[in-house]
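Box 3.1. Reading complex inputs
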Amino acid sequence: MIFAHHLPNRREALLGAGALFAWSQMPRLARAEGRDPRLLVIVLRGALDGLGAVAPVGDPDWVALRGDRALILDGKTPALPLDGFFALNPAMPNLHRLYKAQQATIVHATATPYRERSHFDGQDVLESGIGRPGASATGWLNRALLEMASDGRVSLRDSRVLGVGSVTPLVVRGRAPVMSWVPQKLLPASEDTQARLLDLYQHTDPKLAVALEARIRLAAIARGAGMVTEPDEATPAAGIAGVRAYFAEAAGTAARYLARVDGPRVGAMGFVGWDTHINEGAASGQLANLLGALDGALAAIETNMGDAWRETAVAVITEFGRTAKINGTDGTDHGTGTVAFLAGGALRGGRVVADWPGLKLAQLYESRDLAPTTDLRAVLKGLLRDHLRVDERVLASNVFPDSAGVAPTSGLVG
Amino acid sequence: MRNSAKAEAVLALHRFGTGPRPGSVTAIESDPRGALIAELDRPSAAVAASMLPSSAKAFRTVADANARRQAKAIVATKQEAAKRQQMADASVMTEGTTPGMSASAEKMAAEAVPDPGRPIYLQEAKVRTDAALSAEIGFAERLVWFWSNHFCISANKIQSMSGAYEREAIRPHVLGKFVDMLLAVEGHPAMLFYLDQAASMGANSISGINRARGLNENLAREILELHTLGVRSGYTQDDVIAFANVLTGWTFVPPGDNPEHGGEFIFNPRLHEPGPQKVVGKTYEDEGAEQGRAVLRDLAAQPATATHIASKLARYFIADVPPAPLVERMAKAFLDTGGDLKEVARAMISSPESWDLPATKLKRPNEWVVGMVRSTGIVQVDAGRFTGGQALLGEPLWRPSSPKGFPDDEASWIDGMGRRLDVANNFAERVATTADPQDIIETVFASTVSDEVKMAVGRAESRQQALALLFMSAEFQRR
C-alpha cells in the first residue's frame, strides 16, 4: 500500500476496487421519469480564492481592493465575461464555454456554516455536512445514498459510491460501500507545497534549498519552452504539467466509470494545492495554473461522459475562501466566502447565483473576507433534491442535519 | 557536551538503524549504544524463516520457463511458416521464408509462458523490506544493505537470484568474519554470472586449448579493486591476470535435464588454468578451487582491505568524509580480530566520533524511504509499488548501474530532492487518514525536530501537506 508508482494498471485497479456494479437500480423517481442522473463532487482542498476565480468586475470597489492583481475585462489576460457583473478567470475557457451553453452555473459569496479558518476543520464541515467539525465520520453524499437505500429506491448491495484517490474523501465515506480508484500518475507536489518546503529549507538546510530551487527552476523552464509532455509512470512531469495530467486523468477516469451503464452514479474526488498564501498569481501564476488544470478536468469529464453528460451534474466546492485583499506576500490568507462551480448537461445554467454582499470594508466579513451570503448547503440540497430526487425532509434531518432553515436552491437543474 | 537521552536515541535510530518508528525511542532511550550492540546479538530471524526459493531453484525455475517459451515460439514459427506456404502455394510466391522466429510467435510464447523471475524478485523485495520495517532499530538490516551494495550484483542481469544471493551470501555473514562473506560471495553463482566468471577459462586449460575462448578478468579485477584491497592500493595488471587465472574453473552447474540440479556452484577443472600463480607478491600452487580460496583468504587479511572496508563502513554510517581516528579504530578492530565484523561494528558504536558529529549525512533514497514508512508504523509493503518507488528515486533494489554499487555521498543524491518530494507527497496522501504529523513529531521523533519544522507542519493547508513537509524535512533526510 505504499507508492503510486507502478500503480495498478487499469485492469488491476478494477480488480482491486472490487466489482464495478453500482446502482443497478436507479432512484425510483428518476427512473420513473426515464432519467439516469450522475453526480460528481470535486473538493478543492486548501481554500480557493473565489475572487481570483470569478471576479466581480462590475463592483465599483473591485479594482481598488485588489489593485493590479484584480482580474479585469481589459487586463493583460482579459477575464472572460459572464453576466456583466462577474467575469471568469481567463484560465477557464472550457467552463466559460459551458456557461455560455447554459451548462454551467457559478455560485458566488457562498460558504458552509463553518466560520473559523482551519483547513482541517473547514474540510470536515464541508464534507461531513454537519455544522461543527469532528462530529461525523461519514459524508453527506454517502448518507444521501443510504437514505435512498432505506426507502427501497436503491439496492445498497449493488450500490457503490466512487471515490477517486488513494484516500477516500470524507464526503463519500460511510455505510454505503465506496469503490475507490487510484489515479496512475504520481501527483507532483503542488507549487504551494514546494514553496513551503523551500522556505523551510532556507531556514534549516541551505543545501537542500539549493537542490529544491533547481528543480523548481527546471520545471519553470520546461513550462516556458512548452516542454509539456504526458507523464508516464517512471517520470512524472514536473510542476503544473504533471498537475494538469493528474487532474485530467483522475477526473476523466471518474467520468468513464460514471458513464457506464453498470457504473456508479455518484462520485467524489479531491484536488489539493489551493492554499495560495504566497504569489497567488490569479491572472498568470499559481492560481491560474491550477484553475487551468481544473478547467481541463471539466473538459475531460464532459468528453468521457459522452451521452451521459446530458444527465450529469458536477459540483466543485472548497472549504472556505480567502482574504478579500492581497496580503504582504502577494497572496491571500484564509477567508470565508468563495465560489462554487456547477457544471454538466443536466444543469439549467448560464447564470451566476449570488446575493452580492459588496466589497467595501464594512461589507467584508470581519472586515477582511468576502461575506458569505449563500449557504453552500442550500445549493447542495437543491442538487440532491432536484437532480437525484432525495427527499427534502431527509435532506434536512439526515444528510445535512439541522439545516431545516436552509431551503434548497430551486431551479439549478432541469 | 552530551546529547539528551531522547536525542541520542533518535540519532541512533537514524544513523545506525532504519529510522524511528512508534515506540522505538522509548524502547532504547535508557541506553541507545547498548541497544545497538544488543541487536547485533539477536538479529532478525524473519528473513531466514521466509521459505523463499534458493538461488539455484529460482534460477532453474526461470531457465525452465525460458526453455518452454522458446519451444513454443519455435513451434508457432513453424506453424506460421506452414500457413504462409499453403497460401503461397495457392497464389503467387512473393517472398521466401525467414529463418528464426517471427515476432508474433515470440509474443504469443511470451504470453503463454510468463517470466517467473519478476514474482520471485518481488517476493524477495517484500521480505527484505518488511524486515527493515519490523526491526526494533534496524542496525543489522543496515549492515545487510551495506554489504549487499559493497558486493553488489544486478537483477538486470540475473533477476532470479538477486534476492536469494543476498540471503545466502551476505546476510549470514554480516556479523561474522569478513573472509567467510568474501568466500561465499565470490563463489556464489549470482556473482560468477554477474561478473562474467562462469565462462572464463585458462588458455592452457583443457577447454581453453580446444576452443578459441579464454580468460575473463572482470571478477578478479573487481575483487581487488572493489571488494577487498581497494583501487590504487598497489596491485598491478599482472596481479589481475594471475588472479583471473586462479579463478578459472569457478562456475555453476548449467540448468539441464535434471530438475533437481542446476544453478549451484561447481569447480570445473576443465576450465582451470594449470600451474602456480603469483598474486600480490605471493605464489599460490595449483590446488584447484583451493588455489582461489587461498588468494581470497590472504586478500581478506590485508591491511589495505581493513582500511578500505573501515573507510567505507564509516562513510556509510557516519559521514561522507569520516573522521580519521574513527576509521583507524575500525580498521584496527578488523585486523586485530581477523576481520570479525561484529567487532568492527562494536568499535564504531563505541567511538565518540560516531556520536559527536551532527546529523549531516544525506540519507540514500532507500534509507530515507524506509525511514518515512517506518515513522508511520506501517510494517508491510506492496512490493510492486515499493520497488517502483525505489526505482523512481534512483535506487532500484538490487539494480545498481555498475559493480561499484550505488554511490554513498551527498553530491550523488541531492539533486533527487524533487523526486523525493513527489514520492513523499504521494505517500503522504496515502497515509493522511491514519498518520498524524503531530504524533510523529511528538512521539516517534520525541519532539527532537526543529521549531521551523514544527511551525511548517502546524501551518500546513492539509494533513497531507503537513506530512509531506515533515517527510521532506532535514530531520528525515539527514542522519
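In summary: Chain A has one domain: 18-185+251-399.
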